[in-house]
Amino acid sequence: MSIMPPIPVLQGRYGTVLSAEQEGLVLERPGEELTIPAEAIARVHAEARSVTVELRAPSGATPSVHRIEDVSQAAATAFADAVNALLPERTEEIDGGALVVLRTFAKTRRQRLLRRLKWFVFGCLAVVVALCVTAGIAGVAGLAIAIVPIGVIATASLGFGVYCVWTWNRERRLLKHGITVVASQANRPGMYFYTDTAGTTRVLSHWSFEPYVRASYNPQDPSDVLVPQAPFMRRFNITLGAFILLCGLNGVALLAIMMVGTLSGGGS
Question: CB-based burial of residue 85 (10 Å sphere; 0-12 exposed, 13-18 middle, 19+ buried)?
Fold first, then answer.
């Protein structure tokens, strides 16, 4: 039987929220979301201002639980009573924890890198502007004009090259030291489910029409996951990235030589 509203939405400590949806419960925590299907729930317990969702477990096994605290006591009781009343009696034994799906919203390593690269690019562009001003003050208008295209191309090359090399190194590290599993397509395009070594089902975003894809994740951080590229594409990307990075470094060296020559009087 589906769990249907109206059931109170519980708001607890540290921004935790527990609510009911069409097919179960959703527990939202900062940076992640747990979807608990109705068939995985054994019982919901209300204890004063806390609610515990107990999952089904085979005989002899300790059931997994998920708790939300500092909620309204009246809402906690109403929530537990309403959900328990809708749970059908079941006799078969299953591991409810295996049915729970975890979706992570915390910034991924790639997102953090892109944010740092953005500030790096802004910093490089600020340096280019400063060099133009310096050349203008030195009275070398031609140098000031030349700095702009060289600086912009060098900045773009450094950013793109660093991103390509970092992506290649991350994929190489996960393939060598991580765990590779088969992820199955979810009920929405671009989403796949994979299970980590702790038995937690996690969500992977990857645009593909294949029913299954290979996914490699970091055993210390299972949310650090990717779908490996074909070997040819990996080699192509690292070659291209290294070449572009080298071009960017050459551009920086060229700017440095031009400025040193100008400031030392060689450009006069």
Answer: exposed
Question: 3-class SS at 156?
Answer: helix
Torsion angle in degrees (nearest 10) through CA of 122, 124, 127, 132 = -100
Distance CA 44, CA 36 (A): 12
Classify residue 40 by its DSSP letter.
Answer: G
Instruction: Give residue 268's pLDDT.
Output: 44
* Cβ 96 vs Cβ 40: under 8 Å: yes
| Mean pLDDT confidence for 50-76 | 89
pLDDT digits (tens, 9 = 90+) for 150-207: 999 999 999 999 999 999 999 999 999 999 999 998 877 788 999 988 888 898 888 8
Alpha-carbon distances of 252 from 10, 141, 235, 248, 257, rounded to whole Å: 56, 19, 26, 6, 9
How many whole angstroms separate alpha carbon 185 and alpha carbon 255?
50
Tokens (6 digits) for 243: 């070449």
